[in-house]
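Hi all, posting the design record for the shared folder.

TITLE: backbone redesign
STEP: 1 of 1
STRUCTURE INPUT:
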């Protein structure tokens, strides 16, 4: 879902391509904001809506364009694991960098390597998990789903004085298999 600080129309051409028309005229001091609440099922089509909105705005007077992305697509593939694999995060990053935006807000990027890479190319702010999730004091523990999540989960556990449980997993035929929770260790 895409939310904006301005009004626009969206349509599809007969071949399925997407078009947009921005209905607002921005003053030279106005900063149009595009908030992309990423839904995996529609993210590919929505990316082209966002790209078209940025393109339409860039043709109008404005001071800057701010893009807020709720979930960074493809950030979970933070490396290439096997010969011949694509690096989907890198592919998406290259597409994102083609947008003429002045600032991007990201929310709890999966991997710090993605945030570091983005910040070198565009003015980016990443809001960490610990800043985004209000803690419910009724929770008994914080669970990290794998070793890669320990650092973020530990921040939350330390902040609220809760024990941290780290799940152990392995991949079997390309699928993730976790040990039963009762066999996991508190840290």
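Okay, here is what came back for every position:
SEQUENCE:
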């Amino acid at each position: 879902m895409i939310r904006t600080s301005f009004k626009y129309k969206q349509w599809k051409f007969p071949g399925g391509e997407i078009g947009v028309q921005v209905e607002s005229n921005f003053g030279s001091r106005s900063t149009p904001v595009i908030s992309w609440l990423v839904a995996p099922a529609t993210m590919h089509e929505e990316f082209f809506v966002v790209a078209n909105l940025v393109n339409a705005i860039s043709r109008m007077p404005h001071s800057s364009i701010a893009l807020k992305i709720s979930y960074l697509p493809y950030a979970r593939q933070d490396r290439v694991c096997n010969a011949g694999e694509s690096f989907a995060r890198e592919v998406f990053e290259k597409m994102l960098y083609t947008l003429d935006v002045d600032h991007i807000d990201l929310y709890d990027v999966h991997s710090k390597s993605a945030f570091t890479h983005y910040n070198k190319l565009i003015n980016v702010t990443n809001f960490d998990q610990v800043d985004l999730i209000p803690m419910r004091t009724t929770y008994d523990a914080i669970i990290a789903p794998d070793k890669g999540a320990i650092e973020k989960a530990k921040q939350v556990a330390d902040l609220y004085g809760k024990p941290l449980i780290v799940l152990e997993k392995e991949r079997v035929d390309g699928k993730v298999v976790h040990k039963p929770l009762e066999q996991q260790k508190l840290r």
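COMMENT: The chain has five helices and twelve strands.
Let me know if anyone wants the other runs.
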